[in-house]
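Before a colleague's protein record goes any further, I have to sign it off. Alongside the sequence sits a line of tokens, each denoting a local backbone shape. I want your independent view on whether this chain really folds as the tokens say. Where you disagree with what is written, explain briefly why. This is what I was given:
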Amino acid sequence: MRSFLFVPADGGSKLDKATASGADAVIIDLEDSIVPERKDLARAATLEFLKRARVSEHRPRLLVRINGLETGMTDADLDAIVAGEPDAIVFPKAEGGTSVVHLDAKLTAREAIAGVPEGHIKILAQAVESSAGLFAAGTFHGSSARLIGLTWGPEDLSAELGAEANRDAHGELTEPYRLARSMCLYAAAAAKLSAIETVYVDFRNLEGLRRDTEFARRDGFTGRLAIHPAQVPVINEVFTPTAAQVERAKAVVAAFAAKPGAGTVGIDGKMYDRPHLARAQALLARQKA
């Protein structure tokens, strides 16, 4: 999945518009975009929407961002929406593998009650949104078969730190948040999961989004969170391998296939080794997906 578009759970027609945006996944948000007094209404709206939207033949993946474990609202969220069979839960402020094990157990119990096949609902963890999450980022490996990816969030992290901003005057992340971003990448790689880049909040600045998303792809992220439908085409384009990239990857794979056991191969005067093969295979897998 390349693009993950947030939409408030009480957004009404915005929910339907989000599914038609071209996003690979729509995240129905029960957390930050919903004030406490509207949580119950938003849960009911989420369930109704899931039941209606999931039967569509051509639809994006349907994810729900719940309220985090520390809020005391997680159980109410899950009680309300598991019967709607979302494809995944977005897990905010996930602080290491132990927290994922906790959420997995909650999902397993509710899947059984609702008659949903065990393990159907996956988890995308917002793994580095707090200082505790940063220090626990290396513990996700093997925590749950439900876990499909990790992402991070500079907004909550900067609020915890009491920072004035998380980007400088040029729009670049400042040092504490560059570290958090890198930790998300390393944590995802260690756990053999997809790394999903965080939101780009200046949603009218599509050129800035493109540049920032190209940096994300360069560094190893495979998709990005979005907060506005206009961001989706840019994100999809950047994370879709070009024809030239696909042909080069196929050439690398073919060259190694022609020389089983070789540690390096030469193509057009350039030397490629096993890490190049791994990257080529990963690119072709993304292109197929």
